[in-house]
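STRUCTURE:
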């Protein structure tokens, strides 16, 4: 079994970068990325590489090299499915917003649609690869759907979850800590696993390619995200204690992180974690545990989300409290809207919830983010449905220039850790603000001493 043609269904933040790197590293494999979203495919095909829909450092060069050679973006889903030996399913799996499991379970509607379409269209045997993050045991559902094609085509299902983080996707894909491939432990299953191992082995050392049974692989992805998010909630919980005790969370994080058993990563206190996956995947884990009657397990992981919601609200309330318990009519400048630096993705960004709470208190907000398009910010706020779209537009303004954003503001809130914020002329910003001028650094990235010398009143998170 040799993989010569790949189809990836879903040209999003995972499908796009992942397939671009595979195509880049394997020039002899034809990789076609398909999506129902025509605008997204058109953007991936845009002659101006700056217009591709996912902003990731280094991605433009990778796409430029492979696109048109062995990397293709298309809306012809059926053709790409039929001609492929291996199909990656990389569609969205958001939290359900209706019915049983609403607010917790993963919505597998799009996964099932893909499976049905694959079953309907395929005329040759294929390896089907779960790239999306899925609840443990989804492969059995996929198998069930694919089994009933009636045209004799054989499908081998693998789980190959993606561990890239946004903002560092290219680096994570080129030099992953590990690649995980789970499959059925039968002769045919092992042949399929080996075929996919061969693809990654072009650039990933074999000792970093882990193979497991399919259920371990599915569950490992949810577990990895749960552990990472748990570290952020753990450090954030202690950031609140720091604010009452004069301990500094940055010093505490450094002190514990140097213990090799703990490690230094994911100990950065913040306004709260965001992103499309941490919350959704933990909620899904909670739902799965509860569905097996494992209430203590479910409660344990749910606490990670409860703490994160508390951290976002606490940050907004800190702003209100320090602005003399009212923000009504006061201008608050937001630096950053993306859920982390080096991405244009805003899904579940803490900024959305902090803004919503401040707008509820009738603050006026101005926002600057180096990469997030203006329209997206309103889409994010409107999605909450707290107030009308026109009210959101009236109360929240978006600027293209950070100095204009901060002009005549009572306070600045740093919501994303963009490097450029440190390079600003903070004296100039101070001179143009109302006094006293407050900075609420939700990322602990600014030089607090320097800001205080200029005259700012500075609050960090736990420091
Ligand atoms: P996304 O929303 O950016 O992209 C998904 C794409 O799939 C969309 O463009 C959508 O139009 C398309 N799609 C949906 N159904 C389709 C269908 N039937 N046919 C063709 N196209 C279809 O999502 P994403 O961020 O790329 O995430 C995809 C999956 O990967 C999720 O399960 C997520 O949990 C997982 N994941 C995401 C990240 C990340 O950093 N974003 C990292 C690891 C894993
Ligand atoms: C995360 C995981 O890191 C990836 O391994 C995984 O593949 C991905 O989720 C996914 O499944 O979608 P991502 O959400 O892109 O990646 O970014 P992270 O770097 O994990 O950051 C998540 C959030 O936590 C961000 O809001 C970030 O600012 C915050 N964070 C992270 C902190 O507040 N403190 C930290 O120390 C680290």
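SEQUENCE:
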């Amino acid at each position: 079994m040799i993989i010569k043609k790949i189809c990836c269904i879903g040209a999003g933040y995972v499908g796009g970068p992942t397939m671009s790197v595979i195509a880049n590293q394997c020039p002899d494999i034809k990789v076609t990325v398909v999506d129902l979203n025509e605008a997204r495919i058109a953007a991936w095909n845009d002659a101006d590489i700056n217009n591709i829909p996912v902003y990731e450092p280094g991605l433009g060069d990778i796409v430029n090299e492979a696109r048109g050679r062995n990397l293709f973006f298309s809306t012809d889903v059926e053709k790409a499915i039929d001609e492929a030996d291996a199909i990656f399913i990389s569609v969205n799996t958001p939290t359900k917003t209706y019915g049983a499991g609403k607010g917790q379970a993963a919505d597998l509607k799009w996964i099932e649609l893909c499976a049905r379409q694959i079953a309907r269209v395929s005329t040759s045997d294929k390896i089907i690869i779960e790239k999306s993050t899925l609840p443990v045991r989804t492969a059995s559902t996929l198998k069930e759907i694919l089994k009933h094609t009636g045209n004799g085509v054989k499908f081998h299902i693998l789980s190959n979850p993606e561990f890239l983080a946004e903002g560092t996707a290219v680096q994570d894909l080129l030099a992953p800590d590990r690649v995980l491939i789970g499959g059925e432990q039968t002769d045919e299953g092992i042949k399929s696993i080996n075929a996919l191992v061969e693809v990654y082995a072009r650039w990933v050392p074999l000792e970093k390619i882990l193979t497991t049974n399919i259920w371990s692989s599915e569950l490992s992805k949810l577990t990895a995200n749960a552990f990472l998010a748990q570290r952020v909630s753990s450090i954030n919980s202690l950031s609140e204690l720091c604010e009452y005790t004069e301990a500094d969370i940055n010093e505490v994080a450094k002190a514990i992180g140097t213990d090799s058993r703990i490690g230094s990563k994911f100990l950065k206190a913040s306004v709260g974690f965001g992103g499309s996956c941490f919350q959704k995947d933990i909620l899904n884990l909670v739902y799965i545990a509860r569905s097996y009657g494992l209430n203590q397990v479910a409660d344990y992981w749910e606490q990670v989300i409860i703490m994160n919601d508390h951290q976002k609200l606490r940050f907004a309330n800190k702003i209100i409290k320090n602005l003399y318990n009212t923000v009504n009519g006061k201008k608050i400048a937001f630096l950053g809207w993306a859920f982390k630096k080096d991405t244009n993705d805003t899904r579940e960004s803490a900024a959305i919830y902090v803004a919503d709470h401040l707008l509820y208190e009738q603050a006026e907000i101005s926002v600057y983010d180096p990469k997030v398009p203006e329209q997206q910010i309103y889409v994010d706020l409107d999605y909450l449905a707290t107030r009308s779209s026109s009210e959101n537009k009236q109360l929240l303004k978006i600027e293209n220039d950070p100095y204009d954003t901060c002009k005549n503001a009572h306070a600045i809130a740093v919501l994303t850790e963009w490097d450029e914020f440190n390079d600003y002329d903070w004296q100039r910003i101070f001179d143009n603000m109302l006094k006293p001028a407050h900075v609420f650094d939700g990322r602990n990235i600014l030089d607090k001493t320097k800001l205080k010398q200029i005259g700012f009143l500075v609050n960090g998170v736990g420091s």
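REMARK: The longest strand covers residues 5-9.
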